[in-house]
Design brief:
heterodimer, A: about 500 residues, alpha/beta, Fumarate Reductase Iron-sulfur Protein, Chain B, domain 2, Rossmann fold, 3 domains, six-stranded parallel sheet, four-stranded mixed sheet, globular, B: about 210 residues, 4 helices
Chain lengths: ~500, ~210
C-alpha cells in the first residue's frame, strides 16, 4: 500500500530547494527540542506575552475601523494568486522597467549566488562598510556573514536589528526581531556594546531609541553603499517600495551613492494600482497603525535625488520549488506583516528562535519547510495546534492550517519506515472495525488506571513509542468503566 | 545557462506547460471615501494629530505667517532664518524671510539645518498621510529627512479621502515619500516612541479654502 518514495525528499518537479550550509532557514534542533528550552525561560515568555498581546489589541482596533477589510483581503489574495500564475512575465517586465530607468537587474539562483553578487558589487565601490535596511531576504541568505567574510563592516540600522546585531543574537520575529528582549535587557546590551554611550542610560524606550539615533547618525551620513530588501516591486513601472517606521530606511535609500536591493521573486506586483490594496492591508496588520510612518518608492535612478547607482537582485533560493506545489504556493503570497505570529498560541509560548529559521511562527512553519525541502525542517509542519487564528488575521488570507496539513502528509509520505503513529493508527483502524477487539482494547486501557494512582492524568512513564506522545501532552487517566459497560449496567441489554 | 534563464525556466516548469487561467481580481473594496468638504479636512487633522504631529490651520492669505508660527512652536521663537532650509520650488510667499534654499549641495550638509519647509503632492485623510514627490515644491528626499523638524504645507485641494484616491494622483516614476507622522519605532516592547532617525517633529500647515459668502 505504501508508495515507493525516493530516498531523498522530493523536490517538486526536480526544482532545487534552498541550499544547505548557507543562510538561516534551518535550525540546529527540531522544533520540540528547541521549544522545550524556550518554555523553561520565564522571562522570555513574559516578554513575548506582553508584546504580542499589545500588538494584537492595536491591530484589532485599526482593522475594525475599515468597513471593507474583507473585500481588501480577498483582493489581496486574488492579486497574489494572479501574480504567481504569470510570475515569469511580471519579472521580465519589472526587469525591463528598472533597466529603462537606469537600474541594473541581477538574477540569483540561490543564497550563495545572491551573496556573491552583492559582495562583488560592494567591493567594486571600494567602500569599507555597508548600511542595511531591515530585510527578511538578506537575513534568509545570510548576507551579513558573507559581507563580513569579505572584510566589510555591516551596520544594521533598524532598531530591533541593531539590538540583535549588538547582542550577537538571532532575530525571533519578522517585524520586531528583538521582541524577545525587554527594555532592561536592551539597556544592558546598549550599555555594554555602544562605544561612548551615556553611562546614565536608562531603560526608558525613548532614551534607548535616542541612543540608537546617536550611534547610527554618523554612519548614515558617511555611508556610500546601502543594502535593502523590498516590500513590493511594481512590474509595470519598475517602482520598488520599502515600508518602514524609523527613517533608517529613508537614510539608506537616500544618502548613499550606491543602493543594492535584494528582492525575493515573489515580491513583484503587476501594477502600481495594486499597491492601493497592499498599502492598506500591510500597516494595519503589521504594526497596528493606519499607515506606517514612512513608505519610500523609487524607480531606477533619479538625477540629483538619491543613489546614482541602483542594483536589483532577484532571488529564487527555493521559491520556484514552492511555486511548483499548487497547494503550498500560497505561502509565497505572504507580505511579511507578522500578524500570524502575534496571534499564534504556539509562537507566543515557544518564541521565534524555536523555529530555527528567520521565518518563525505559522507562516514560517509553512514557508521554511517548502524553501528547504520538508526533510530539512520536518518538525515545523507539526509546530501548530491548527487552531486557525493565523488564517483569520492573514491580510492576504493564506490558508495556513490547510498547508500545514498538506505538508504533514507530504512528510509522512516521504518516510521510508513506518512511523509509530502510522502503526498505531493501523492498529486502531483494525480494532475499531472488529467489535470484540475493540471491547478487549478498552478493557486493557482501563489497566492504565493502575499507573495513575488516583491522579487525573497519567504520569510520563509510558514506554516508547507512546512516550513520544505523552512527553508533551497530558493523557487523562482512563475511566473506571467504558461507556458501553456503564450503559449496559444502567439500561440493561 | 545564465541565472536569469535558469530562474525563468524554473518558473515555467513550476507553472506547467498548460497554464491555468489567471484568476480574476475583484476590486469591490472602496475606491473613494464618503467624507468630503470641511469634514474631510477635519478627518485629516484628526488622523495626523493621532500620530502626535501638530496641525496649524490657516487661510490662503496667512500661509507665510503660519509657517513662521509653526517654526516658532517647533524651534522656539529664537530661530534664525539660516536654520531653516526650504524646497527650491516652494512659493515665495510661504518662505520665512532670509531662509536658506536647497540647491545642489551634498545632501548630508542638510543635516546641519534645524528645520525644512516643503509642499506636498497629495494628502490622504483616512490614514493621515502626506506624500512628497520630489517635485521642486516638495524638494529632494534628503530635504524632508535630515533636518530634525519638517514643516509641510498642505492645500485643501490636495486632500483626498482614501489610499486608492491618493495613489491614483501620484506618478510612480518619481521618488515618493509617504509620511505619516514623525519617525517612530515600536521595537522596544512594541511601544510606540516618536522620533528616531527621521524628523522628530512634524508640523502641518493646512490651508483651508476661503469661506464661501463669509
Amino acid at each position: 500500500m505504501t508508495a515507493t518514495v525516493p530516498p531523498k525528499a522530493p523536490t517538486f518537479l526536480g526544482l532545487p530547494t534552498a541550499p544547505r550550509g548557507v543562510g538561516h532557514l534551518r535550525g540546529d534542533q527540531s522544533f520540540p527540542d528547541a521549544a522545550r528550552g524556550a518554555l523553561r525561560d520565564g522571562q522570555l515568555r513574559a516578554n513575548l506575552g506582553h508584546a504580542t498581546s499589545t500588538i494584537r489589541g492595536k491591530r484589532a482596533r485599526v482593522v475594525a475601523e475599515v468597513p471593507d477589510w474583507e473585500q481588501l483581503r480577498a483582493a489581496g489574495k486574488a492579486l497574489k494568486a494572479a501574480t504567481m500564475a504569470r510570475l515569469d512575465e511580471h519579472l521580465e517586465e519589472l526587469e525591463r522597467q528598472v533597466t529603462a530607468r537606469g537600474g541594473v537587474v541581477h538574477w540569483a539562483r540561490d543564497a550563495n549566488e545572491a551573496n556573491e553578487i552583492v559582495t562583488r558589487l560592494v567591493l567594486a565601490t571600494g567602500a569599507p562598510e555597508v548600511v542595511k535596511v531591515k530585510s527578511m531576504a538578506t537575513q534568509e541568505i545570510g548576507l551579513n556573514e558573507a559581507l563580513e567574510a569579505a572584510g566589510l563592516d555591516v551596520f544594521e540600522t533598524d532598531l530591533a536589528e541593531l539590538i540583535v546585531q549588538l547582542g550577537e543574537d538571532k532575530p525571533s520575529h519578522i517585524l520586531v526581531p528583538a521582541i524577545h528582549k525587554n527594555r532592561a535587557e536592551i539597556r544592558e546590551i546598549f550599555a555594554r556594546t555602544i562605544p561612548g554611550v551615556d553611562p546614565g542610560l536608562t531603560d526608558d524606550p525613548r532614551r534607548l531609541a535616542m541612543a540608537a539615533r546617536q550611534h547610527l547618525r554618523e554612519r548614515f551620513l558617511r555611508a556610500r553603499v546601502a543594502v535593502s530588501g523590498a516590500n513590493f516591486g511594481v512590474a509595470e513601472t519598475g517602482t520598488l517600495t520599502v515600508v518602514e517606521s524609523e527613517g533608517n530606511g529613508r537614510m539608506c535609500l537616500t544618502l548613499p551613492e550606491t543602493l543594492i536591493t535584494v528582492m525575493g521573486i515573489e515580491k513583484v506586483v503587476p501594477t502600481w494600482r495594486d499597491l492601493e490594496v497592499f498599502l492598506q492591508l500591510l500597516p494595519r496588520s503589521s504594526t497596528g497603525e493606519r499607515m506606517n510612518p514612512y513608505t519610500s518608492t523609487w524607480a531606477g535612478v533619479t538625477p540629483g535625488d538619491g543613489p546614482q547607482e541602483f542594483h536589483l537582485v532577484l532571488l529564487d533560493n527555493g521559491r520556484t520549488a514552492v511555486l511548483a506545489d499548487e497547494v503550498g504556493r500560497e505561502a509565497l503570497h505572504c507580505i511579511r506583516c507578522s500578524a500570524c505570529l502575534n496571534v499564534c498560541p504556539v509562537y507566543e509560548r515557544a518564541g521565534g528562535h524555536s523555529y530555527g529559521s528567520v521565518y518563525p511562527g505559522p507562516i514560517g512553519a509553512i514557508l521554511s519547510p517548502q524553501l528547504t525541502g520538508v526533510e530539512d525542517n520536518a518538525s515545523l509542519p507539526y509546530a501548530s495546534s491548527l487552531c486557525g487564528a493565523c488564517f483569520e488575521v492573514c491580510p492576504v488570507a493564506i490558508d495556513i492550517p490547510s498547508i500545514l496539513v498538506h505538508l504533514r502528509a507530504e512528510h509522512v509520505e516521504a518516510q521510508q519506515k513506518p512511523t509509530a503513529e502510522g502503526v498505531a493508527f493501523k492498529a486502531l483502524a483494525r480494532a475499531m472495525s472488529h467489535p470484540r477487539l475493540w471491547h478487549l482494547a478498552q478493557r486493557a486501557a482501563g489497566l492504565g488506571r493502575l499507573l495513575s494512582r488516583g491522579r487525573p492524568t497519567l504520569p510520563n512513564v509510558l514506554p516508547p513509542p507512546v512516550s513520544g506522545w505523552t512527553r508533551s501532552r497530558d493523557l487523562p487517566t482512563p475511566p473506571r468503566k467504558t461507556f458501553v459497560e456503564q450503559w449496559t449496567e444502567e439500561h440493561g441489554r | 545557462m545564465s541565472a536569469r534563464e535558469e530562474v525563468l525556466g524554473r518558473i515555467r516548469t513550476a507553472l506547467g506547460e498548460t497554464r491555468a487561467p489567471v484568476p480574476d481580481v475583484v476590486r469591490d473594496y472602496r475606491s473613494g471615501h464618503p467624507t468630503t468638504g470641511p469634514a474631510l479636512l477635519d478627518l485629516l487633522v484628526d488622523r495626523v494629530e493621532d500620530y502626535r504631529a501638530t496641525v496649524l490651520r490657516c487661510s490662503p492669505a496667512e500661509i507665510g505667517a503660519t509657517v513662521a508660527a509653526a517654526l516658532d512652536q517647533a524651534l522656539g521663537t529664537g530661530w534664525a532664518a539660516g536654520d531653516v532650509v526650504v524646497a527650491p520650488g516652494l512659493a515665495q510667499g510661504w518662505r520665512p524671510a532670509g531662509c536658506d534654499v536647497d540647491d545642489d549641495r551634498p545632501a548630508v550638509q542638510l543635516a546641519d539645518r534645524a528645520a525644512s519647509v516643503t509642499a506636498v503632492a497629495v494628502a490622504i485623510a483616512e490614514t493621515g498621510t502626506l506624500v512628497l514627490d520630489g517635485s521642486p515644491a516638495c524638494g529632494r528626499r534628503a530635504l524632508s529627512l535630515l533636518p530634525d523638524c519638517l514643516v509641510c504645507v498642505v492645500t485643501a485641494d490636495q486632500v483626498v479621502g482614501s489610499v486608492p484616491e491618493g495613489l491614483a494622483r501620484l506618478d510612480p516614476l518619481r521618488p515618493l515619500t509617504m509620511v505619516s507622522g514623525p519617525s517612530a519605532t515600536s521595537d522596544i516592547e512594541l511601544q510606540r516612541v516618536e522620533g528616531v532617525h527621521g524628523p522628530r517633529t512634524l508640523m502641518v500647515v493646512l490651508v483651508q479654502p476661503p469661506r464661501v459668502g463669509g
